[in-house]
Hints:
- By secondary structure, the chain is an alpha/beta fold.
- It is built from 6 helices and 8 strands, in the order βββαβααβαβαββα.
- The chain has an 8-stranded mixed sheet with strand order 1-2-4-3-5-6-7-8.
- It starts with 6 loop residues before the first strand and ends with a helix.
Amino acid sequence: MAPVSSAERVHTVDTDAGPARITWTLPPEPRLVLALGHGAGGGIEARDLKALAAALPRAGVGVALVEQPWRVAGKKLAPAPKTLDTAWRGLWPALTAPGLPVVAGGRSAGARVACRTASGLGARAVLALSFPLHPPGRPEKSRADELLGAGVPTLVVQGGNDPFGRPGEFPPGEYELAEVEYGDHGFAVPKRSGLSEAQVMSLVTGAAGRWLASLV
């Protein structure tokens, strides 16, 4: 695929939970926007978020990496889920401002936010990266209802060895699931897998790109 010139810009959005920040990477003529929130233990520097922001604009997909207010404020601990949802709802008008369909997404806690709010905000679909189906070692604490209740087309990209929920643990439902073999919650793989980080990220971006292409 030939490279294209993409414009990156950053702006701050005031929400009822505090200022959030959006880093946009837009191709010349985007056909949709993929908005990606980060997890509770990190920010938009996560390897999968960076890989998607680098790869998808070449396929005509604008990417908006969203930093929740607690990260913008420099705090180390994420607030309660309802506060995360409040911030996401507050910045949604900025995500829809380009006038394009918006796919809500994120990794881990960000995937949960996207699922919980997608239907109410009118998201075109949800991309859930490393969806935390349950806390490690606590399968009885399932969050499947959030995933199953998204109400829009959904793709889960999940590591084969994710302690927050391996692919085989996910319940049946109206969503798609792409497995990244050997991957943990951050899509890191052991040396024995024979896969480089670049190859793993190619699996993630390839699965997301093919699914996004099927939406429009």
